[in-house]
Amino acid sequence: MQSRYITVHGYRLHYLEAGHGPAVLLLHGFGGSAEGWRATGDVLAGAGYRALAFDCLGFGRSQKPRDAPYSLEFITGLYVEAMGQLGIDRAAIVAHSMGGKYALATALLHPAMVTGLALVATDGFAPAAAMSKVGKWPLLCWSILWLSGQPPLVRAMMGAAFHQPEAFVTEEIIAQSSGAFQGWENIHALTALSQRYDATDLEISGMRARLGELRVPTLLTWGENDQIFPVAQSAVAAAEIPGARLITFPTCGHFPQIESARPFRGLLLGFLAGLRD
After folding, report:
1. In a domain, 192, yes or no
2. Residue 157 maps to a domain
3. 153 within a domain of the structure (yes/no)
4. N or C: which end of the chain has fewer CB within 10 A?
5. How do residues 234-265 score in pLDDT, each as one tens digit?
6. Structurally, how many domains does the chain consist of?
7. Distance between alpha carbon 191 and the CA centroid of its chain, in Å?
């Protein structure tokens, strides 16, 4: 995948792109980046799709503003405008964890632009995170974010996120995860995001109450051993999203696209092929 930049509404976004054909947007989770989708993007490109993995504003190599009006509407508006600039009328969205709530909001607010949703251990169906309260105290928030970037703590968190951490938690993953929380630019941006948590939460923003409006094919995938968003939440998501199909992966944690890569990719390609019929 090739690294590229685009300026949207005055904000510089970084994304990775590969392939030609129907567009597929890949959205990462909290603390992640487009790099986490590189292998999947290459597979999609090889299968005849135009894969675009975005760094969400405030993450990865995208701009990290302190004063952006972070909200579901704002972030989804950036993606939709980016699609327009890149000549994309419609796209399927594949989204992991935090990215899931942005994918759902995009399908609700801009339904004509979304052909399908493939949500991986999606956020939006868990109780409000502690950061929704911590964000109101910047100094405390800064301290927690700084600690979150220390390699020993990252290693422990990644160990909990994977069912088989000894096989999948590499030094590269540790370095990438640590980097998301290191440096004042990152900390200030994540603090600003935390301070606007209510506007980015599916439940508190009122967006979850609208899920019944969705009329787009939806695939839900979940690891049966997910300790971040326990698999019980998958049934809740499937019940609230009309027509959603749910597939769970055994002996798998919060990252099915990594820990169950082969069956996940096969399932994803089958889902995307169905959207082309």
Report:
1. no
2. no
3. no
4. C
5. 999 999 999 999 999 999 999 999 999 999 99
6. 1
7. 18
